[in-house]
Amino acid sequence: MSLSTVEAKASEVPAEDPAVKGIQGRTPLQLVVARLRTDRVAIISIVVIVLIVALAIGAPLIAAITGHGPTDTNVDTGTDANGQPLPPGSAGYLLGTDNLGRDILVRIAFGARVSLLVGVLATAIATIVGVVVGLFAGYYGGWLDSILARIMDVVLSFPYVLFAIVLVSVFGSSLELTILVIAFFSFAAIGRIVRGQALSQREKEYVEAAHSLGAGNLRIMFVDILPNLVAPVIVLATLLIPTAIIFEATLSFLGLGIALPTPSWGNMLSDAEGVGFQAWWFYIFPMMFLLLTTLAFNLLGDAVRDALDPRTERIFAGRRKKKPA
Amino acid sequence: MPDPSEDGDVLVRAEGIVKHFPIKEGIFFKHQVGSVQAVDNVSFEVRRGETLGLVGETGCGKSTLARCIMRLFPLTAGRLTFDGADLSTLSRSQMRPYRRGMQMIFQDPYGSLNSRRRVGSIIGDPLAIHKLASGVERRKRVQGLMEVVGLNPEHYNRFPAEFSGGQRQRIGVARALALHPKLIVADEPVSALDVSIQAQIINLLEDLQGEFGLTYVFIAHDLAVVQHVSDRVAVMYLGKIVEVADVKDLYATPRHPYTNALLSASVVADPDQARTRDRIILSGDVPSPINPPSGCRFHTRCPKAQPICSTEEPLLKRGAQDPSGHLAACHFPVADGEKLASEKATILHTVEGFLAEAPT
Amino acid sequence: MTRFLIRRIVLGIVTLWVIITLVFILYYARPGVDPARELAGRAVTPQLLANLNKEYGFNLPVIVQYWNYLKRLVPWPGVFNLGISNNNRLPVTTIIAQAVPIDISLAVGSAVIWMILGISVGVLAARRPRSLWDRGATVFVLTGVSMPTFILGLLLLYVLYYLLTIHGIAIFPKPGSWTPFTQNPLEWAHDLILPWITLALITAATYSRLTRSSLLETLGEDYIRTARAKGLSERRVVYRHALRSSLTPIVTQFGIDLATVLGGAIITESIFGLPGLGLAVVQAIQVQNLPVVIGIVLVASFFVVAANIVVDALYAVLDPRVRVS
User: Stretch B45-70: mean pLDDT, rounded?
Assistant: First the structure.
């Protein structure tokens, strides 16, 4: 009876109406992309990030072109007649060599791989764990929330560098451990925000509506609530990447991150510190690339936040160009 | 498990439904220090195909009662049967198959639709949850539903924010219809809408009732709306049903003093009549549901209260001159033609008279 | 209020206990660990291992070891005992007592600078949003959050110490200089000025951002409009009414930051060769000097837990709403 009525009505509607596509609402993501495209600072940040990604991907190519591997101590050409490192601009060594005669340009390129890999992977793990923990804590509440929220508070307030070096000293330094340690100390930042949002979202009537339709808890958490949290999570994740990159560089600088001789920007600076200040180019290039990367990600994070929340007016957005109609 | 005492005419039977929300306190370990007695020992039935109106002030427990019928939380006590099946103690997952037979329409057309999901996905959600249709099939059914409730099926891919309040409520109605339920519990479905839109939604609900053979539990605080849509009406006060009757009996001969007060307070379209009729102004505030009055819960504000009212709780029973379905929970029901106007009403008349005479 | 404090203190003790237990598992009871071997450090002999096993009771059941370990951490004179450094056989408490004055000096000096700098930059930016001041503040904040501490430290050392010194202008002390305050306050400040600036600049960025957003939010409140409407001077509105209630998040941040520095500013101390807890823990980790590592981790955790309690109590005083819940 009632079923057939609806079906009868349904059959009158053409299954694929070409007009339907034309009036699709824009998703929040499409809106953000549209806003970012008119934001000068965001474009510059993205260009810088793309260039650094290209440098990381092209690292073996650079090694092949220059003929110097990242860990080659170029005994014949890498040092001058007195065994001193070569300054930038020397023949074959665009950015000079270090005290062991290694090509700084090639090492920077390989260091970019480490920084980006650690930054992106650690952030990805931290985001997934943070979202899951935050959703469970905020949605279920009660004792589960008390415990999870307390753990996140403790992780957030503790001197993470100290605990990171303790962990690394116990388990030995490696790329995997570095990523895990950074993810562990970062997940709480996402988890706390997600928890707070989930706490307020679960009181919304649409959650009750989903419940009355027969949706299970997991479905409500991940299909109904999660899409409402995408905006803050994207912003936080973008801002976590530079934090993770700094974290890795700091651990490596202390000799507890990426093990030598694999180059990372942090352990290159640690090497340089051991040598002294005479050869400024040991310092300046890893510093420059590190700063450029973290700055680009931070600027992009700010831009994404503003694009997601049109109420905030950013100072550096410049005049947003009107798109041609 | 069908109940032998159940006659086929009754879709929902509630017996002694109790819902208390615990109040917890404690430094480390929370312990219960009291409870909000939102719904307390309520019994009623909903007959197949009828509309049962549920009225009462804000905070009287009518929304909680609606959620009890929907089993959106565990009942503290009582027995709830739906279409012959006992739902009182089912777990959340055991409830799932029964949700196909009962659906809810919510008060807030903004909060009850997930603003991050497209309309098509919202209306199709019940079909997805119960795995009834997917892909093109689901889309066709959703677009059919959209047409049924008066929405343009081409707006399938829009977000709720692109619709007006009335249209959003139609989306909520379409979602409730998707599973072809027997019962729809409408929790103040029009009170968040403009008056001009309210009539449209009410007419839609009435049309759908005829078309799909629906049974409604219709909650509202607007007595005129309830009078218009309901076959029978139940009046709630502080977690209890104080009177239930066919709509014309209840509005013509209200027996419970609270029902009288409620009816006398409703808005009357004619200003002359509004000024001259008797209004019962209740003294004091609604008592706290954490610590409700003893005996009859209304005795603290009742113009007819006697000593017995504070000691003995009146049961719902039929008055001698009333038709069989008219029950009231009062030791001293209001007789035909009895005047209940309190002294304060005169003061109000004076103020209104003063305002009427004031130079403009 | 008292109940609130009791709850906080008990939670703090539980947190400390969890950390103490985790450290115990990590160092003494992790699967496959041989604590005697790790305690012995580099110069391992079977005799030494046997002695260590006897001295520390590593042959006892784990639960007994745990009990003994917990027992000596009871903060009571004569009971409390962090063990003996296996480097120079000094009690760990003595080593910590020697290092703590450096961390206190570091914390006090830099905290004064970062609070003054951070809050005033934030206030300037919030008072004139989108002005030149605000733009300058944003550059300051973004650079600060993108800048790894060790890069700023190295840059300051390179420019202010190395470059000036080789040009004959030796106004800043060489790394590793340290004079106790009681000996010569002027010399004390002179030796600490670069570490102070390093720590303060990085930290001040966070405070500027916090102050700006918090103050901007408060300035949009209705009671500020009321204050303006009744004719108060803008100065009075900002400093008496708005800034006061904007300071609560800053107090929280300050307590935790101060405690973190007190527990050892690892990077700053390493770069400037300051013999505080941070440098001590890095050196102890490098030579596997477990008693010192554990001692410092516990002390640093204690500082953070204590700071959290103090901050919560202060918060309750500043914001009456906290007391109620």
Answer: 91
